[in-house]
Amino acid sequence: MASRGGPRAAGTDGSDFQHRERVASHYQMSVTLKSEVKKLIYTHVVIWLLLLAQMCVGHLKLLPHDQVAMPYQWEYPYLLSILPSLLGLLAFPRNNISYLVLSMISTGLFSVAPLIYGAMEMFPMAQQLYRHGKAYRFIFGF
């Protein structure tokens, strides 16, 4: 190619560099996946804040018991799930893979495990609601 002020290479007008300006496909996918994981983390933070609000209202008795029930036991370990989410957000700016791996493992431990336990604990109540149409716990009327 040509230097700034020097002669150009023979047979080129200087516009044959576009093929080198494309981003490799695996880097494009990395950017796409990062944005998807960020959306999931932000959604998790919103759910976490709702759960925290339910716990605060339940423990401080700001509303009557028939509107907001006390939290189940599995909801307390779920509160720890905010730490892996924040760790995952810290991993993104510098592409720190060790933080991201630690975040994914911790998410399984602190988020998914309490949810599986909670689903098993809630299954008999869901069956009763389906069969008889009676719910014994309400959160703001739902």
Automatic annotation (TrEMBL):
Chief location of this protein within or outside the cell: endoplasmic reticulum
Q: Where in the cell is it found?
A: Endoplasmic reticulum membrane
Q: What domain of life is recorded for the organism?
A: Eukaryota
Under the heading InterPro entries, the entry gives:
Jagunal
Keyword list (alphabetical) reads: Endoplasmic reticulum, Membrane, Transmembrane, Transmembrane helix
Which stretches are transmembrane?
40-62, 74-92, 99-120
A cellular component term (GO) from this record? endoplasmic reticulum membrane
Q: How does it sit in the membrane?
A: Multi-pass membrane protein
Q: Name one GO biological process term.
A: vesicle-mediated transport
* Family, as annotated: Belongs to the jagunal family.
Protein name in the entry: Protein jagunal homolog 1
Q: Which organism is it from?
A: Ceuthmochares aereus
Gene for this chain: Jagn1
